[in-house]
Design a protein that fits this description.
This protein is an alpha+beta fold. It has a single domain, classed as Histidine-containing Protein, Chain: A, CATH 3.30.1340. The N and C termini lie far apart (38 Å).
């Protein structure tokens, strides 16, 4: 974790994308998709190295995605918070 905090969101997005997910990054927030399904939204506070992930409940493979993404976030973030949320209509 020696890189500057400004690069943290890009580094995380790149790492998640390398695992086969589609990642749409905007500033310090990202949307993560697998094929045509929403998986999670992630917000990063680079200066504090805090990551907050919200996983969408309706995805049938959410547990698999959650484990994989959380293990990646733990490599970069000092603190990781997560929750399951319903997808809003």
């Amino acid at each position: 974790m020696s890189s500057s905090p400004q690069w943290l969101p890009r580094k995380i997005a790149f790492t998640i994308a390398n695992k086969g997910y589609y990642v749409s990054l905007h500033s310090t927030s990202m949307l993560v998709m697998d094929k045509d399904m929403y998986v999670a939204s992630i917000h990063i506070y680079p200066l504090d190295r805090v990551c907050i992930a919200r996983f969408y409940k309706y995805n049938k493979r959410i547990l698999e995605h959650k484990i994989q993404i959380l293990s990646l976030l733990e490599k970069f973030c000092a603190k990781v918070e997560h929750e399951l949320v319903p997808l809003e209509d």
